[in-house]
Amino acid sequence: MNPYHDDAVDWVVEGTGMRVAYDDFTTIDWIHDFAQERQRTRKLHRQPGVAGQIAVIYDWVQGWIVVLAVGIAAGIVAGGSDIASQWLGDIKEGYCDTAFYLNRNFCCWGLDETDTCTEWVPWNSATFVVGYIFYIMFALMFATTAAYLVKTFAPYAEGSGIPEVKTILGGFVIRHYLGLETLVIKTVTLVLSTAAGLSLGKEGPLLHISCCIGNILPRIFPKFKKNEAKMREILSAAASAGISVAFGAPIGGVVFSLEEMSYYFSSDTMWQSFFCAMAAAVALKLMDPFRTEKLVVFQVSYDRDWHGFEMFFYMLLGILGGLWGAFFIRMNLRLAAFRKTSWLRIFPIYEVFAVCLLTAVVGYLNIFTRVQSPELLANLFRECDGGAGNYHGLCDEGGVTLRVFSLLTASGVKGVLTILTFGLAIPAGIFMPSMVIGALFGRALGMIVQAWQTNHPGFWIFASCLPDVPCVTPGSYAMVGAAAFMGGVTRMTVSLVIIMFELTGALTYVLPIMIVVMTSKWVGDAFGKEGIFDGIILLCGYPFLGDKEEYKLNTMASQVMTPVEDLVVVTATGNTLDSLDNLLHETHYKGYPVVNSLRDMMLVGYISRTELRYAIDEARRRNLPGSTPAGNVVPILENTPAFIEFRLWMDQTPITVSHRFPMDQVIVIFRKLGVRYVLCTQHGQLLGLITKKDVLKHLASIEHPGEQESS
User: Fold this and answer.
1) How confident is the model at residue 243 (pLDDT cuts 50, 70, 90)?
2) Are 278 and 316 in contact (CB under 8 A)?
């Protein structure tokens, strides 16, 4: 027996078998990785004396050191990107005469909103055309540079990153997606793409960046570097830190990681996620990139309560948000399919140039599409209190019709541009554009309701309004509309409510937000597909199947798994090094069941292709002849000079089910245990096997029965 490993006996006793490094675009073996961690911990606690106690304490501290470092790094990167993107975004409209490196807010620091800032020199101070040209020129330069950097150095840096990170947390392996190149390029290009004024957000990319940090830093400790399951615990904490710095909502980040991202989320992982999100928020708070002591620029607070009659209008926003989410997802999927089959697939940089040109040309003409999204959200959310909050006449008593028309026009333009932008070859999130579209529409609706109440205070639905006191707060409609449209696209529920609560700090608005979010989700589920982040999940693995897929499988509970006739197996005896090598060359399966013999087909275990290939290569490097016997049972022959036992690399305890086991319960096994395969047996006799890909094909045949043969 040549195990090529010092812990061979422990692994044989453990029964799950050893593993080599996972291949790209494969799934990890959760059961094996947990067994590996269990074995490592058991060995650690065997160390005697004070040195052993110190080693145990140091091992425990490693996880907290990592999440602290990840949180601090995420906060620093987020703060730096806020400062850089705000300055570059303001450069499109003008420059600071006293210090070129200052953005508009810092250049005019200390002045009231109604005061004129002489230090800031806009490009359109000479003529409108000059400002128009400079705005378009800088936008094209930023966006094209970002697209070039992404396509040349780090293609994985494009997009939001949330669907792929969610898939990785589910156990899928995508090499280099969370690597150093992706981290650097995505950080730089995120600043450029947001500064270009495109209809995109940085919240999703910030989560991706945080997970890149969470993938790089823990590798200094072997217990994370050599265990993919343990690494995913850190990635869950990193995801919560990303949302924490994106929205200034550390608790919302933890709940988002639990609700939307993570597949395995133990109590220890929750505490580490909480600590990581807190560290990220503290680091961002200490940086204070906006010099307002706010984590994000669009944090607001409300002093007025809502009235019962407003619930009808809030629910209307929820319905519209759900419809918008269903429409956006449908259009985005069609556009993504068109990109794959058209010239856009070959020239992605030109597509970015064209969309940016359209965005700049159209966006400059309306002030609500010209300014940066965080600044716009902050002013749409604000109350009208005296002279404060009167952003471009939003609080003026006259001219309501013109302002409402301008807001609705901006909302429609933003909607079209968001559909075109999401999916470009640059970092692009969907959170911020959805919130902006909903906030614009919500503010317009709030202004309509406010004008109605002001002109007809005696109308019966306004009976709860007090005289001489503002009754309707249009800013709250913008906030509720942002939650509704964001929920319609992402189908987030609990985490979205908590994020909006942390943004506003208004406990009284939690109930309307809850109702609106649930309304948008119900409407979106009724009229559309799953949330935008779930589209890519089914391509890579299905720990996150939605309710629709579960319903389809539950309707097949009476179905049974049928045996297969052409099953390729490995026998426990009777093999040689050459015969196993030939098996790998003649077949391309990811693994092989191991049986006692072809005659009885009694199941012994399962060996993956990668491990079998590794064992054969190791034997070749030791100059063993091709006729060397190999198998699971050592032959009792006195004249046998050598024997290769692959029991060390074999899973001796595979998950098995009866051939009459219902399909819906098989899905539960895959989802809850994270297994890569399930073997079908009858009284210990092997009948067949089911892999994740088999289940995905089964789901596809149910969804599209006419395409089963072609697929």
Assistant:
1) very high
2) no
SS3 356: helix
Tell the burial category of 34 from Cβ atoms under 10 Å away from its Cβ (0-12, 13-18, 19+): middle
42 in Cβ contact with 658 (< 8 Å): no
- Tally DSSP H helices, then E strands, for the chain: 27, 11
Mean pLDDT over all residues of the chain?
84
Cα Rg of the chain, angstroms:
29
Show the tokens assigned to 568.
């390729």
pLDDT for residue 638:
43
d(CA 244, CA 246): 6
**How far apart are the C-alpha atoms of 72 and 626, rounded to whole Å?**
55
Q: Where are the domain boundaries for CATH 1.10.3080.10 in the chain?
A: 50-287, 310-540
The C-alpha torsion from 179 through 184 and 188 to 193, rounded to 10°, is -10
Considering only residues 563 and 84, tell me which one the structure prediction assigns the higher pLDDT. 84
Going by C-alpha positions, the residue among 566, 514, 83 that lies closest to residue 292 is 83
3-state secondary structure 470-501: CCCCHHHHHHHHHHHHHHHHHCCCHHHHHHHH
Q: Boundaries of CATH 3.10.580.10 in the chain?
A: 557-710
Q: How many CB atoms lie within 10 A of CB 683?
A: 7
Cα 402 to the chain's mean position, in Å?
39
692 band by pLDDT with thresholds 50, 70 and 90: confident
Report how far residue 249's alpha carbon sits from residue 240's, in angstroms, rounded to the nearest whole number.
9
Q: Which CATH number, 3.30.1330.10, 1.10.3210.10, 3.40.800.10, 1.10.3080.10, labels domain 50-287?
A: 1.10.3080.10
| CA quadruple 473, 479, 484, 489: dihedral, nearest 10 | 150
For residue 4, give the amino acid letter. Y
Higher pLDDT, 400 or 153: 153
Per-residue pLDDT of 523-553, as tens digits, reads 988 887 666 655 444 334 434 333 333 333 3
Main-chain dihedrals φ then ψ at residue 306, nearest 5 degrees: -95, 160
In sequence order, which residues have a C-beta less than 8 Å from that of residue 357 and are 6 or more positions away? 136, 140
Q: Give the span between the Cα atoms of 169 and 177, in whole angstroms.
A: 12
How do residues 490-522 score in pLDDT, each as one tens digit? 988 899 999 988 887 767 888 999 999 999 999
What pLDDT digit, counting tens, does each position of 457-495 carry?
A: 888 888 888 887 788 888 889 999 999 999 999 988 899
Beta-sheet pairing, 94-96 with 120-122: antiparallel
Give 36's contacts (C-beta < 8 A, 6+ positions apart): 19, 226, 227
The three-class DSSP label of residue 309 is coil
Q: Which of 137, 162, 158 is nearest to 149 (CA)?
A: 158
Q: Using an 8 Å Cβ cutoff, are 18 and 213 in contact?
A: no
Q: Give the pLDDT of residue 73.
A: 96
pLDDT value of residue 8: 55
Q: How many CB atoms lie within 10 A of CB 619?
A: 22
On the question of pLDDT at 641 being above 70, the answer is no
State the Cα–Cα distance between residues 333 and 12, nearest whole angstrom.
48
Q: How far apart are CA 430 and CA 533, in angstroms?
A: 10
80, pLDDT greater than 60: yes
Assigned fold of 310-540? Clc chloride channel (1.10.3080)
The label of the residue with tokens 């392996």 reads 173
Residues 532, 489: contact at Cβ < 8 Å? yes
Q: What is the DSSP string of 534-557?
A: GTTHHHH--TT--HHHHHHHHTTT
CATH class of the domain defined by 557-710: alpha beta
What are 149's two structure tokens?
Answer: 């950097």
DSSP secondary structure, 429-466, as one string = BSHHHHHHHHHHHHHHHHHHHHHHHHH-TTSGGGTTSP
Cβ proximity of 517 and 321 under 8 Å: no
